[in-house]
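Q: Is it fine to ask for two folds in a single conversation?
A: Yes, each is treated on its own. Send the first.
Q: Here.
A: Result:
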Amino acid sequence: MNSKYISLYGDIIAKIEEGTFPVNAKLPSESSFMSEYGISRDTVRKALNLLEQNGYIHKIKGKGSFVLDINKFNFPVAGLISFKEMAEKLNLHSKTIIHTLELESPGSNMMKHLDLTNDKEIWKVFRIRQINGKKIILDKDYFNSELVPKLTKEICEDSIYRYIEGELGLQIGFSNKEITVEPCSEEDEQLLDMEDYDMVAVVRSTVHLMDGSLFQYSESRHRPDKFKFTDFARRTW
């Protein structure tokens, strides 16, 4: 019995991904699925519940099930989450490509971003994020080498945050973020699969440890069709 609802679940996902059931479209009724697949109403409901749990559809009582946009990945504005953590949470087929990993002397602009009072070298890490075979994010990160003294290709391909917290024993605390939409740069066009898009969503962040120490400045450049930035807000008086 389990294989029947899993089979229906997989068929509906395939039709959503190929566009047979487009975004915001209403799915056929439970009775239609029962008749087409020769299955019980309980089996149909199990498949629909699983689709809703995994973010493919939204069920509205008395109206039916509607297709959600699966091509955009939720990226929390207020949260502090690494790409690795997000990819694992959303079960994405992802790959990180290291473009730049080097120690460099900071210019005046980067000294300001990282609140540095000396010209000690900083880590410059540029990583291309590939999801489902498409290069859609360029992460440009700069780290205070006094707080993050060592980085390797293996660490950067996995998770720098995991290394900072697990290996260095530091506790990442909070960040400040600025989000803009900007024209593509030549670098974006060279490193990302921009297709016909000429704009990118840019998230600039400064990230602090729990003790307030500023250890990272980040510029994350996203192809705009693939990401939506989400937040939760509560009205206060």
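Q: Second one now.
A: Result:
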Amino acid sequence: MPAFRYESVGADGKTRRGVLEADSARAARGILRGQGQTPLSVEAAVGSEAPGTARRGGFGRRLAAREQALLTRQLASLLTAGLPLDEALSVLAEQSERDYVRELVAAIRAEVVGGQSLAGALQWHARDFPDIYRAIVSAGEHTGRLGLVLARLADYLEQRNALKQKIQLAFLYPGIVTVIAFGIVTFLLSYVVPQVVNVFVNTKQALPLLTVIMLALSGFVRSAWWALLGGTALLVFLVRRALRVPSIRHAWHARLLRLPLAGRLVRGYNTVRFASTLAILSAAGVPILRALQAAGDTLNNEVMKRHVDEAIVRVREGVALSRALGGTHVFPPVLVHLIRSGEATGDVTAMLDRAVAGESSELERRTMFLTSLLEPLLIVAMGGIVLVIVLSVMLPIIELNQMVQ
């Protein structure tokens, strides 16, 4: 049964907004009139698109990563407590704080009440619940352990969000320092340098070479700043267009993996995503080939993704998972060894969880090391640039002082 978002006015003159289930918009208006409400607007709630299609929406018309993890955790708790799925969704819809989340859950509940499975209902919201999410939910429904699978999925989402937040916060300080440094240098070049040096230009004094260069650079910044911004925007546009070409994107991703520090971060981040997804799908009872395909789709590095595709072919031919992944030479050896141990003991999921924990800690350590290395480098670079600007201003003063003496 479809869900409709409405706005109505009651007999007391108060405006009410909410979501209700009805066969059609006309039936929804009839329900509102039967409740003594005068409908002002009735329209289909979130989920009126075809399954699997992306939805167009304005600002805030999307489920945030934190909200997705919270909804998953709450739904898992309610199902584990013994509530039927439709009642659990009804509780989530009532306690949702944001209108969009309330409409989203109400629309999902309407599809479930209409006979759809939870995974089938989520297909109407492909942007909020990606393929990997729906595949895990579907596996939980088929195995009859939806509550446990959702609890594990919530753990995965929370760990992924926490790791992403730690990496973003680690690079926040260097980013702020870079922006402030750029602003200070721009101010010095566009205002301070011309104001001071023009005094010596009027005296017809021959200026030092460094001062002349700084004056030329200052004039360029003041008169052609628009060209600088336009050139930067054009460069970003051309780079993004170039990375859409498969051969160029593959070459760039291969180059990223070979970089001394950044390459390890890229490899570690993708390894955590791959192993985490593979662990949760394995625990949910998803066949290994399908789990490998879904885990490979979470990789954002084309080289690693291509090697996973090659490993899938080898596993399909009968090769063990550890040997197939070990032959790619793109994943850390510890991951391969732990998977081999899991194959020997019959508990690959536990070994994958251990690999994820270890690789996550290593990724955090490398991120902190890189940011701790960037901070002094940025300070030294900023100090060097300011020193050059100050020298360009002081050299004419020193020469003039020598001439007076």
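Q: Anything structural to flag on that second result?
A: Two points. Strands lie at 3-9, 15-21, 38-44. The chain has three domains: 3-44, 65-129, 145-404.
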